[in-house]
Design brief:
heterodimer; A: Rieske Iron-sulfur Protein; 3-stranded antiparallel β-sheet; B: mainly alpha; Cytochrome Bc1 Complex, Chain C; two-stranded antiparallel ribbon; 13 helices; globular
Chain lengths: ~160, ~350
């Protein structure tokens, strides 16, 4: 009789435990799913990009590396705000153009073209890249990102992602 | 004395159902050893936290979390609103002092073996709080939308993005998208003033729970101070209040003489701005610079991760009941090497970036 009572009490405890666990999980899922989705939704969106017009190619000096600044409007969440920055364009003597991102591949500081040393330098950790964007000194290991570009109606267009 | 218009203070407490709590607090005794000066780092941290919460909450009255107006709102609060410089200064110098005192609290705890049984989880909960603090700094730095905040955030985001597989997702999650714009600023703001403080308070409750349940660590000298007791109220409470008054006064005066810095407005096109690592992160920054190429993961992940692992695992590595530093030579040696390395790297970083 006593043994039976003990067994029943154990069953009852187990039932209570399962019931409470079930209710807790239900409450967690019911409140958690919409809240978590609400929070992470923007992170699941894929990066977008656009062609940005940098003006007439003939203005660029052959054999030089020039800083091209941009400013365009981007919808960020609920607001349209200006997105500003710059890229580096290398114009070869044969008018062949390469466009590099200004973002250092080490820790995202802006790299600056230094005419005297013929290198891009990153002021943050003294990373250096040659004129083709290849890392030559300091912590960076990856080359500067080369950006997609095209020439349309004599204007230089660069594809920027954001 | 306690009578006000015929109603005694006791009656008021009784009506508010506070009488039992007040009675318990009045009768609460703590070891007299709690009055030792180096046991006050924790109390000082609590005082600083109250100041940080208060100054932060009041700063939010004049803050507008939008890239177009954040800088101007901070500038207005700092230079136009009465006491604006003091309140921002207390917040600014407060968190810097908080980091220093937290370091001292940790070193002191390690020195006297406060992580030894039965207080392992008091230590672990403290280390978790320590790990949460950088999240406050990362989210708070961007809020004024000045050059320093903007560019420091870019560097931090880039470090986060370099984490294999999940880096990019983590950045998008933190910023609410790929841009450091209005969505990111609003997220940082809400995390900084709501979610992180709630989490910190929760962790503090856990830390205090273990502190109350497991007690203060015994004194190293082994004298009989621990058997003597003092009343928590008013002896300890008054000491804490004096500490709070002193730290408020000191931070207020510092803020008065040297207003908290606010740089130029953030300009993503500025190619001349060089973000300088702050003093507390110099050693990590130096580690990142030392290990190059395929070894960079050693400096950015393995060593810092190992250090965190060491701190969390310490109570379980150094678990002998022996608490005197002179009789814990091995673990002291390891800690000394780590401390010297951190100091040396910080000095190297300072010389490189700030001189």
């Amino acid at each position: 009789m006593r043994k039976r009572n003990q067994k029943e009490s154990l069953h009852s405890k187990r039932r209570t435990f399962i019931k409470t666990t079930f209710l807790c999980s239900g409450a967690a899922i019911l409140t958690g799913f919409p809240l978590v989705s609400y929070f992470i939704a923007p992170a699941l969106k894929k990066a977008t990009g656009k062609w940005v017009d940098f003006g007439a190619v003939e203005k660029l000096t052959p054999g030089s590396i020039e800083m091209l600044t941009y400013e365009f409007m981007v919808k960020d969440g609920w607001m349209v705000l200006p997105q500003r920055g710059f890229v580096w364009a290398k114009i070869n003597k044969d008018q062949n153009i390469k466009v590099f991102s200004s973002t250092c591949t080490h820790l995202a500081c802006n790299v600056i073209w230094q005419e005297e040393s013929n290198q891009f330098i990153c002021p943050c950790h003294s990373g250096r890249f040659d004129s083709n964007g290849k890392p030559v000194a300091g912590p960076p290991t990856k080359p500067l990102a080369m950006l997609k570009h095209k020439i349309e109606q004599d204007n230089l267009l660069v594809y920027l992602t954001f | 004395m306690n009578k006000t218009a015929g109603i005694s203070l006791e009656t008021v407490f009784e009506r508010l159902a506070l009488d039992r709590i007040i009675k318990r607090l009045k009768e609460l005794d703590v070891p007299a050893d709690a009055l030792t000066w180096h046991r006050f780092f924790g109390a000082l941290l609590l005082a600083l936290l109250v100041l940080l919460f208060l100054s932060g909450a009041f700063m939010s009255f004049y803050y507008s979390p939008s890239p177009g107006s954040a800088y101007d709102s901070v500038d207005y609060a700092l230079f136009t609103v009465p006491f604006g410089d003091i309140i921002k200064g207390i917040h600014h110098y407060g968190w810097n002092l908080f980091l220093i005192v937290m370091g001292l609290h940790l070193v002191r705890g390690f020195w006297v073996g406060a992580h030894k049984p039965p207080r392992q989880l008091t230590w672990v909960s403290g280390v978790i709080i320590l790990l949460l603090i950088p999240a406050f700094i990362i989210t708070g730095d961007l809020l004024p939308w000045d050059q320093k905040g903007y560019w420091s955030t870019q560097v931090r985001i880039s470090i986060m993005r370099s984490v294999p597989f999940v880096g990019d997702f983590m950045v998008r999650l933190l910023q609410g998208g790929p841009l450091t714009g209005i969505v990111a600023l609003t997220r940082f703001y809400v995390l900084h003033i709501l979610f992180l403080p709630v989490l910190l308070t929760f962790l503090l409750v856990i830390h205090f729970h273990f502190l109350i349940q497991r007690g203060l660590s015994d004194s190293l000298s082994g004298d009989n101070l621990s058997t003597k007791t003092v009343r928590f109220f008013p002896v300890m409470v008054n000491r804490w209040l004096i500490l709070f008054l002193c730290v408020t006064l000191v931070l207020g005066l510092i803020s008065w003489y040297w207003p908290a810095p606010l740089g130029d407005p953030a300009d993503p096109t500025d190619s001349t701005y060089v973000p300088k690592p702050e003093w507390w992160v110099l050693f990590l920054n130096q580690l990142v610079s030392i290990f190059k190429g395929p070894l960079s993961v050693v400096g950015s992940v393995i060593i810092p991760g190992g250090l965190v692992g060491f701190l969390i695992a310490l109570p379980f590595i150094d678990s002998s009941p022996e608490r005197h530093p002179a009789r814990r030579k091995m673990v002291m040696l390891v800690a000394a090497i780590i401390a010297i390395a951190v100091l040396a790297l910080s000095i190297m970083g300072y010389l490189e970036h700030h001189v």
